[in-house]
Amino acid sequence: MSPAEELDVTGSQEFFAAYDALLARWPEGTTEIDVPTPYGTTRVHAYGPADATPLLLLHGGGATGAVWFANARALGARHRVLAVDILGDAGRSTRRGRPLRTTADLMGWLDALLDGLGVSRAHLLGHSYGAWIALTYALHAARRIDRLVLLDPTQCFAGYRPAFLLRSLPVLVRPTAARALAFLDRETAGTDTDPQWKRLYALAASGFPDRRLVVGRRPDPAAPAVPVLVLLAGRSGAHDAAKVAARARRAVPHARVETLDRLTHFALPTAAPAEIDRRVSDFLAAGEEAVAAPDEA
Question: What is the DSSP string of 177-201?
Fold first, then answer.
């Protein structure tokens, strides 16, 4: 029997056990924060110096904020890492109060989340669906964003491959843990994607049948008024990495666009974390060094 066939879901209890096991791999000193917003309470995993520049992390659909366990220590060396469980997705954030239905609602939720965290400006990093939210927010509130990092962003510069949508369909229409794990195994083949996180993703697919992600149009092609790093997975099944790179360069001429040739879409961010952390840290440090440099005028 395959690992996917052996995976038996008993509901959210099993999901949260897997979630807590992944969270236990975060560095010592990580704290949990529940931030009330008009749309519900948002769970945030926080690590790093409390007085450092905040770095808000937005995960891909179904990944949860716990997915950044392999990145938190390195990114939190110089930043206050704030990893969010996106409201409406699987995780420990809970929806209540105002409905969260539109892109405008999503932007209002992020405004309220940053306010609740006491953050006036931050670096913003998103993967996949989280990258779509991050880019949309940078266009909505550039005054609050110092630097923007997009990890294999979907629905930002190009659409999905039709074949990817067809492969995703069984998981979307009749979500089970076994189907989700089999799909993920195919999409991460040849990478060292963390197996514990893959199991959590599979449990999220079946344990949260009522989860509703807010989706909207591709962001306006106008370039965000902040420095941007687009870090692509060269073997992404979700879209054509070369096409995304070309369109990103046209849409955001000042962006730094780089490709991780060996990685796939779902391998981010748990596979090759040291390489991801190095590129992200170098990009963020460049901005901070520029701010700290003396005025030569």
Answer: HHHHHHHHHHHTTTS---HHHHHHH
